[in-house]
Amino acid sequence: MLKVNQVTKTYGDLKANDNVSIEIEENSVALLVGPNGAGKSTLLKCIMGLLRYTGEIEIRGQRNKSTEAKRIMGYVPEIPHMYPLLTIAEHLEFTARAYKLDDSWSEKADFLLERFELADKKDKLGGTLSKGMQQKLSICVALLPEPDFILFDEPLIGLDPYAIKQLKNIFRELAEKGHSLLISTHILDTVDQLWDQVFIMDHGKVVANGKKAELDQLGKTLEDFFFDVTDQQRGVVLTETELAAAANSQQMSEPNQQSEK
Ligand code: ATP
Predict the structure, then answer these.
(1) Which residue's alpha carbon is at the smallest distance from atom 31 of ligand 1?
(2) Which domain holds residue 76?
(3) Which residue's CA lies nearest to atom 21 of ligand 1?
(4) pLDDT of 82-112, one tens digit each?
(5) In terms of C-beta density within 10 A (0-12 exposed, 13-18 middle, 19 or more buried), how is residue 39 classed?
(6) CB neighbours of 174 closer than 8 A, spacing ≥ 6?
(7) Is the C-beta atom of 36 inside 6 A of ligand 1?
(8) Is 185 touching ligand 1 by the criterion CB < 6 Å?
(9) Which of 39, 44, 148, 236 has a CA that sits 20 to 30 A from residue 62's CA?
C-alpha cells in the first residue's frame, strides 16, 4: 500500500526526516511512535505530499502526489484545519463534491455526525467549534470518502472519552473492511491489539520496526518494545535481564536505513 524510500526532509540544518524508508502492506494497521520531535508528523505530511522532500513515496504503486494516489488517501492532521465560515454540514458537502461522491454521501455523513455527537450542531460555523469538535469534524471529513489508506496524526488528542471509544471502534471496523491505516500516536493502546506493524522514530530516523506477530511470539507488549528501543536510544542503563530482553527486541527490529553521520 505504502512505500517510502529514503525520504529526507530538512528545515534549515535540521533533518526532521533523515533517510526514512518504510513499507506498509495492503489491509494492515501500522503504528508510528516515538518521542516528541522525532519526525512523525513530518513523515505523515511528506506522505500526503504536503511538504517538499528528497526521496520517493508511492501509494499502491502511484506517486503520492498523483491524482490516482490522492483519490485513495485520507488524512487526519494533528491540528485540524476548519473553514471558519463554513458550517459543519457544509464541510461535509464540500468534501463530497470535491471527491465527486455519489448521492449516498449525505446518509454516510449523517451517520458519522451521529457517532461523534455532532448531528445537532450541523449549522455551527467552523470558526465557532471547540478544539474537540474541530477534531471530530476533521475525522468525519477524512472518513466520508472511505479512502483505502488513511493517515491519522495523534487522532485521540482532544477527544472526549465517548469520541475516543467511537474512534477506536471505527479503527476496528476499517481494519475489518480491509482499509490500511497509518496512525501516529503517543498512546500505545490507541488500537488495542489491532495493529500489525509498528515503526519507532527518533531524531528523524526509523530506529526500529516490528510486527505484532513477532512480538507476540516473544511474549512482549508494544510498550515493552517501545521502551526497550527508546531507552537504548537515550543510553539508559539497563539491568542484565532488561538488556537480554532488549537484545531480543533489537534482533526483531530491522532499521531499514543507514545513518548519514
Ligand atoms: P510530536 O510527537 O511532538 O508531535 P513529531 O514526532 O510529530 O513530534 P515533528 O512535528 O515531525 O515531530 O517535528 C520534527 C522536527 O522538525 C522537530 O525538531 C520540529 O521542531 C521540527 N519542525 C517541524 N516543523 C517545522 C517547521 N515548520 N519549521 C522548522 N522546524 C520544524
Answers:
(1) 11
(2) 2-260
(3) 16
(4) 999 999 999 999 999 999 999 999 999 999 9
(5) buried
(6) 150, 181
(7) yes
(8) no
(9) 39
